[in-house]
Amino acid sequence: MVRAVDPNDRYEVMGAAVGGALLGALAGRVLRSTTLGAVVGLVHGVVAGRRRVYDWSNRRGRAAFALDHTWALPTTAAGLVVLGLTWVRERITGVSPGYEPSLSERQNRMVHRDGFVLRRGFAVTIGTVINGAAGRDGVLTERRRKLVTDHEDVHVWQQRLFGPLYPIAYISWFIGGVVVSLVRRAVSRNDRPLSTEIDRYAYYRNPFEWHAYTCDTNWPPHGVEPESVWAGRFPTSEWIPRALRESAGNPEAPR
Ligand SMILES: [Zn+2]
User: Fold this and answer.
1) C-alpha 209 to ligand 1 mean position (Å)
2) d(CA 64, ligand 1 centre) in Å
């Protein structure tokens, strides 16, 4: 789809590209790869600018941009890789990931109805990229939209706040959960499929997921035996610093 380029859009793309490249270079310098950091920041800035992703009108949006191109640059880069693979696949097979502007523009994230997912029916968030927003049937229902705004968006912010620690912590927990499931399976017999056991320990008990499900007022998660996950809700769902909350600029805004 081609649309006429608004001069404001052009400024936004240029600003996001230059800002992303400078911040990325700064972050890259710490890791001794200034050029790589600048390139990641530049490309992500261009894509986000063209898609009008960041909400420049409030602190939350500006902080999101700054964090995505510095502290959270590693996960931003990972999201960019996912976008790149999706783009290549579209070129080869014609299958579009289905970019969803209504859940992305000025909302500091890039949401796709389809795209690469780890598991059918489950949305996945890597950096600023959310894939699989639509359900198994490909329909973006109100429930699925809430999954994006109240669960997947929490993962985007977890990555902004935890930066490079997020993938380390998430993946370590996952591996630990798989090990616990296998050991439990070895020492005690039960009839549950191993995949259900792994889900319990590696996925649902993962604090990042526990937190996101709680923020989506979906704890214990729908369809999961309550006794197989943490008994209580995650202690805090009001976790984004007050100044960065969505309603910070406009207290009357409905959520
Ligand atoms: Zn999740």
Assistant:
1) 5
2) 19
